[in-house]
Please model this.
Amino acid sequence: TEEEPIEEIDLTNSKLSDSPSVDRAALEEDRKRKFENHLGDSRAGKILKKARSKVEENKMKAQEKQSEEEVKMQRKVIHVNRTEEILASRSKLPIIPEEQVVMEQISDNIYVVLAGETGCGKTTQVPQFLYEAGYATEGKIIGITEPRRVAAISMAARVGKELSLTSEEVSFQIRFEGTASSKTLIKFMTDGVLLKEMGHDFLLKKYSVVCIDEAHERSLFTDILIGLLSRCVVARKKRNDPLKLVIMSATMRISDFMENNVLFKTKPGFVHIPARQFPVQIHFSKVTPINYVETAVKKVIQIHKKLPPGGILVFVTGQQEVLTIIKHLQRLCPNTEDPDESVNSNDKKGAWRKRGQKPLKSVNLDEVKRFPEEIEPGSDSDNSETEDVNIDVDTSNLEPLHVIPLYSMLPIEDQKKVFEPPPPGKRLCVVTTNVAETSVTIPSIRYVVDTGKVKDKLWDKVTGVQTFRILWCSKASAEQRAGRAGRIGPGHCYRLFSSAVFEHEFQEYSTPEIKARPVDDMVLLMKSMSIDQVKNFPYPTPPDDEQLQVAEELLLHLGALQRPQGARKGHPSTISPLGLTMSQLPVGPRFAKMLAMSFSHSLAEYMTLLAAAFTVQEVLLEAGGDKALEEKWTAVRKKWTGVGQSALLGDAKVLIRAAEAFEHDGGSPEFCIKMGLRHKAMVEIRKLRKQLTNNINILVENQKEIILNPKLKPPSDEEATLLRQIILSGSPDRVARKVQPDEVSGGEDQNKLKNAYKCGELEDLVYIHHASVLRRTKPSWIVYQEAFEINGKIYLRGVVAIEPEWILVLCPTMCRFDKPLKDPPPYFDHTDGLVKCFMKSTYGKQGWELPVAQIE
Ligand code: CDP
Ligand code: MG
Model:
């Protein structure tokens, strides 16, 4: 051939001298010339020249891109003019002198862990550092997530004020409420909001930086966010559009993040903000009181009476306790404002809101909840009434006290009051849940009264039986609470428990939420994001395999997940079309399935009401031994239940009728007592239903809008049957069967067996709760919404009668069939004792009989 052998020259990696004295440009020129000569005019030469120019072109392009990147990296610094007052308050914060260190770490690393004592300025200052360094330029924004609504709202307001920006520019966003817009530069949001955004845009392209605040709280959705973001930042780096992840935490258990090589492939940057804390003297109680609410009131009065000026902060477990303590203090101290004015202001506005109007405030959704701002740590969902007690304490010569509440469900305008100074001459006393432990720092506190208690929901991992317990908080939490007293000067913390109890009964740290609750909503969320191998997800603390398995199985039973036909048990499941719809709904998977089903039957109005009503605890009052009352209430419930097919709707029917009667009456407490309803529960149901209806109408496009009809008519027999089927379809694992007298060996008390039921998963016998209308009729097959334990006996609530044949069709995965059942049809007919199934398209025309089946 005419081609000459050519010397190989590496164009991309030419070894120019490393010595700085050599003129690189000259050398490069020389090399190019030599190469040019060498190639000559041969064909190979021509080809190579072409290739070379291509390489050069690419190189130039790369250089251009790089310089573009560099420009981007040199962000436009923004200058902020702050008022004297703000400058003065900032200058006291320990994080201010560390600004450069913090910003260097963020600039040098894609992930940074920032640890600092509560109140050092993480939440309010880091977003400002980032803003001034230009992280909110070039169309990008700064995001900060909070596990609590209170923090998202109040911190956005504070940062907006410090930067003199509008509430749109420094916005907050909680689910269904917020000020974020296209003008937003800094966005405070609950972690659920960001999770939802990651569902649409995994790369979070509009953010330049995301700060995960309160990471030490280890809420389930914060953990999931950190896992997702650990991958997201790597993907963004690869795209030359870096996203920074800043994990902000109080100084506890940092190692879960720092030494986690599953989460972070390279070690994250780290900044520790030294504390500027005054000493706090800890006073343990000699004995641990039983009634800590009463003891807390006494302690506040003692402090107020005897000790020098300074705010008092009281920690209890929930909204109800907060309100009880306030009521007592208000009674004992003269001139103390009526807190009910602020606390219940929202209830008084109880008019029905029309669609399109924004909800005034979000309410606690309990099981209906799905997203983190709805599953708040230390949430205030308690419905327990605290009885009035006369507190024996010397109240002579008491000065007035400025008492204010703080809890997560407090209306926004009332939350702000904790930051305002008390009226002149009055001592401030804030009664709070663990909201004030780390997320909100109240200025001017000198005395802390700590009950050492925290409210915790516990679930049995397998059966899902739920218990609600007041527990000791962790040692770390107790330290945090005490620390609140040492912000302005030396302080005192009064612990309402003994040092022995603290030493022996307090855990070091509280358990990460992911280890302590069912994870079905989390698994559904992940699958909806195509994360099919949920076991391999980079969790900060992985859940147990058993938990994941239970969740996946429930979702398979619900039809939210699917496995290819014939796949083995371990094969990862993927989301089904039904599951995708369910993942859009703002409720847990069970209610999501029921709601999804109810849409196809135009029964969504009933189902939203039922989802709300089933969620609220103890709606129906118990007579507690009062025979006359019991008779009266039983009669009311019987009347509501009615007769015929629709009576089999049981508790669901009672709840539908109760809600209607409540609205008809206008919702007075007297009416509720007369009808055997707990007033607070009814108010809660009204709120929840309203919110749920609004939310679903916003979310579910292309669906007929749900009408919020306060006076919903009782369902017809046909509708009631469909509702029973829908409720069953969402509760496949909550079916119970009446125990036959000959079924249990002679040892058991036959009388007790009369009321006993058996559930698939539970070893123990279960019983329909006294307040349920079906306790008397005792249907053979039932579904329930809640199983809970009282004195070692398991009771069922939210009970509805079903026909066993329905299980075959609606919950086929719960059954074992002799012949395989192909594509379980969603519609069926139940006449003449024969179960006939119909495909949707042929409904009412053609059907076929079910193969012989055995219900497990
Ligand atoms: O996040 P971290 O606990 O480190 O502190 P921060 O929430 O940024 O609070 C820093 C300081 O700002 C505290 O002393 C708060 O009392 C104060 N602050 C305030 O005065 N008003 C607000 N609305 C929010 C915070
Ligand atoms: Mg903070």
Remarks:
- The longest helix spans residues 43-73.
- The chain has a mean pLDDT of 79.
